[in-house]
Amino acid sequence: MQSTSLLPSLQSLEQKLQQNQLVFTLGDASSITGKPLHETKEVMTRLIEKYNCSLQITEKGDLIYNFGPNLTQRGEQTWAEWWFGVKNTAWTIFAYMLKVGIAIMLVVYFTLFIVILIAIILAAMSSGDGDGGGDSIGDVIGGIFKGIFDWNTSTTNIHYVVDNQGYNYREYDSKGSHIPNKEGKSFTASVYDFVLGPNRIKITREDNQKEVIAFLRKNKGIITRPEIMGLAGWRGKEADNFFSEIVAKFNGEAEISENAVLYGDFHELIRTKSGVKDETKIIWYWDEYEAEYKLTGNKLWTNVGIFFMNLFNLCFSLVFLAAEDSLLFIGLGLIPFVFSALFFIVPIFRWIDIIPKRGKRRIENVRKRLMKAIFQTSENEVSLDKLQGIVNQNLQSEPKLDASKIQYMMQELILDLQGEIVFDNNGKIAYKFVQFQTDRKESQILRDKKEDANNLGKIIFDSN
Fold first, then answer.
1. Is residue 226 included in any domain, yes or no?
2. Among 20, 247, 375, 434, which is most buried by a count of CB atoms within 10 Å?
3. Same domain, 62 and 98
């Protein structure tokens, strides 16, 4: 809750922001509010909690609050983000309705199959071939029905797989068969994944926040911009905005070191007395390759079986589309035809959609490898040849990167790392990361100077 004494100052600065005065020093803000610097700093913290803001440092060590070319609230969606949300919501509703329809269709055809199964069983019993062993028919039927209405096709368990390019990534385990003593992926889960695709592991903004908190609690509450980029892989402006966001959310302090390095000090966040162990794993951006965009996640022959099963349904429904009886036309013609057609149409559109996503994924995985290589060196300047050597050493299954691919990717990455492209003494391309490496080294110096924050001292007052 905001202090009422700070409210007039907050309103004064917010009015300036709305008048497009979007860049302040702390002194600028204090001159507007007429309040002492420590109070004005608290007001600025409230503002960067509400609005997107980048914290910047000048070459003379001054802290700049930059609210961007246009004032935007945190969480405020752009048109592209709004449209993505609309499409995502529409897809979720459509997928749910389609799963309901698929379940109904499976039940209808399942009933027909049961009739055939009973006929086969009766024939077997009459011939005296039954030995009374195996699972009961009821267990098998119950397992099939359970599978039909179990719409979540994966578990929360995770395993690692390697794609055809050699990148190792995480993937959810598929739901097993509900039929007793039958191993492998459930056939009904395969049907749903054939149409709608398997669940894919995604990393959310909240996941990144938890990881940053875990990092802070293990590193004396100190963090710098390169470390934020290393944990979440944020691009330049994203990293700056995320830095200011966590400063505001978790009561941190944006400080400038003696060597003019901007860092976050989260003294209160890391104070602990409970002894509760933080189980959040700290996984660096480059140690977690992007998950593959799979069309179905099924085995080839499973897809072939589903394809021909649905093709049969589609062809069978065409016969009844010519029926004069309205019940036959709708019940056995139109409805099965629509759902059977969607079985083929939806995967085709998903395939078109994931083609560019697969390309972006490949680029992102290359970016991860280059980030790792840059973090593995402490030099301010690295030649293209040396960078290629670092990124291609100790490979497990990943493909080697040639110089042209590295050079292309570094055109974007060099901007995020606040570096520059230069030529070394031999006239060859090199990459300079003076500020980036300075920030990295400074973070360790700051931690070495800071005392252990977990030592709260003795309790000197107890309300009991």
1. no
2. 247
3. no
